[in-house]
Amino acid sequence: MALIAPRVAPALPPEDALALQRALDGGTDITVFVDGTVHRLPPQARDTVVDLLARFSRGEAVTVSSVEEMLTTSQAAELAGISHTYLRNMTDRGEIPVEYRGTHRRIRLAAIMGWLEGQKKKRAAAEAAGEAADGGTSAGESGQ
């Protein structure tokens, strides 16, 4: 999946993570200096760098790698954190679009990222519905 071997960076020490968290709090403007020259990042790169730094600020280890535009089913499944068989079944059902190169299935990176975003939204909606149900029960109990 990676064009270049992934680079894994361990989590920052807690004091460094806290300092980074304070620096990032509320900010999204990232300026990069390369050989003393200032470069303002385009929005997509900026958002990715902010996400990377935010993960470090939470004390998380981070892996950075390149991903090809067209993925094998194994690569797509690994990226999505699901089994190869489950992904193939989803492509068979038409839930994730697939292209064929001869007899081999290929999945666009954008299709996997879209599916992951949809899963994230479903989880958020389910959590919100669960909290609303819990909130309603708690309010009813506290009134008794």
UniProtKB/TrEMBL annotation:
<feature type="compositionally biased region" description="Low complexity">
    <location>
        <begin position="126"/>
        <end position="144"/>
    </location>
</feature>
<dbReference type="InterPro" id="IPR041657">
    <property type="entry name" value="HTH_17"/>
</dbReference>
<feature type="domain" description="Helix-turn-helix">
    <location>
        <begin position="70"/>
        <end position="119"/>
    </location>
</feature>
<dbReference type="GO" id="GO:0003677">
    <property type="term" value="F:DNA binding"/>
</dbReference>
<feature type="region of interest" description="Disordered">
    <location>
        <begin position="123"/>
        <end position="144"/>
    </location>
</feature>
<dbReference type="Pfam" id="PF12728">
    <property type="entry name" value="HTH_17"/>
</dbReference>
<dbReference type="InterPro" id="IPR036388">
    <property type="entry name" value="WH-like_DNA-bd_sf"/>
</dbReference>
<dbReference type="InterPro" id="IPR009061">
    <property type="entry name" value="DNA-bd_dom_put_sf"/>
</dbReference>
<protein>
    <submittedName>
        <fullName>Helix-turn-helix domain-containing protein</fullName>
    </submittedName>
</protein>
<dbReference type="InterPro" id="IPR010093">
    <property type="entry name" value="SinI_DNA-bd"/>
</dbReference>
